[in-house]
């Protein structure tokens, strides 16, 4: 089979979006490679939520240049960080590995702090204060997660083998 190149894209923005969508599709395909198909309803939900988070992030990162490089940087990075937050929340909802759940919590807190710092750096107002969503929301009732009701001790430390 001969691969034929598609017609050239009209604008740099559409080219960038096409590259991003292609990369997101490739990552999703890799997740299912080698027989690692989502078999349980919890895993299907996990994959669907992560796919939705990635799609939203990629779409939201596509901006029209404003002429202010710093504002454009923040406009693209905020959705990128929010995508990481959304994926970390999905791990908290469905994941079982305590070390990964703790890392997901740290991702949420860290990304929220970086979003705030970037907005402050360009003079944007911060949203009202709210608790960091680090506990996750319960998984569907059909497959409860033992972690959703187990509070994490503030004195717990991750053992990273150091």
Low-pLDDT regions: 144-162
What is the terminal separation in angstroms? 51 Å
Q: Helicity, in percent?
A: 55-70%
The proportion of residues in beta strands is under 5%
Apparent shape? flat
H/E series, N to C?
Answer: HHHH
Mean pLDDT: 76
- Count of helical segments? 4
- Name the structural class: mainly alpha
Number of strands: 0
Describe the sheet with the most strands: none
Radius of gyration equals 19 Å
The gist of it:
By secondary structure, this protein is mainly alpha-helical. Helix content is 56%, strand content 0%. The protein is built from four helices and no strands.
What does this structure look like?
With 162 residues, the protein is mainly α. It contains four helices and no strands. The longest helix has 26 residues, at 69-94. It is flat, with a radius of gyration of 19 Å.
């Amino acid at each position: 089979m001969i691969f034929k190149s598609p017609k050239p894209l009209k604008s740099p923005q559409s080219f960038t979006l096409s590259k991003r969508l292609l990369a997101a599709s490739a990552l999703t395909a890799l997740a299912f490679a080698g027989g690692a198909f989502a078999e349980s309803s919890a895993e299907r939900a996990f994959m669907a939520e992560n796919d939705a988070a990635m799609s939203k992030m990629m779409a939201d990162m596509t901006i029209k240049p404003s002429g202010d490089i710093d504002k454009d940087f923040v406009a693209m990075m905020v959705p990128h960080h929010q995508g990481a937050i959304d994926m970390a929340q999905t791990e908290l909802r469905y994941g079982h590995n305590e070390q990964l759940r703790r890392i997901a919590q740290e991702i949420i807190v860290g990304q929220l702090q970086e979003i705030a710092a970037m907005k402050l750096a360009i003079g944007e107002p911060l949203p009202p204060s709210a608790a960091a969503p680090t506990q996750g929301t319960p998984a569907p009732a059909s497959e409860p997660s033992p972690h959703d009701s187990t509070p994490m001790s503030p004195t717990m430390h991750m053992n990273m083998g150091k």
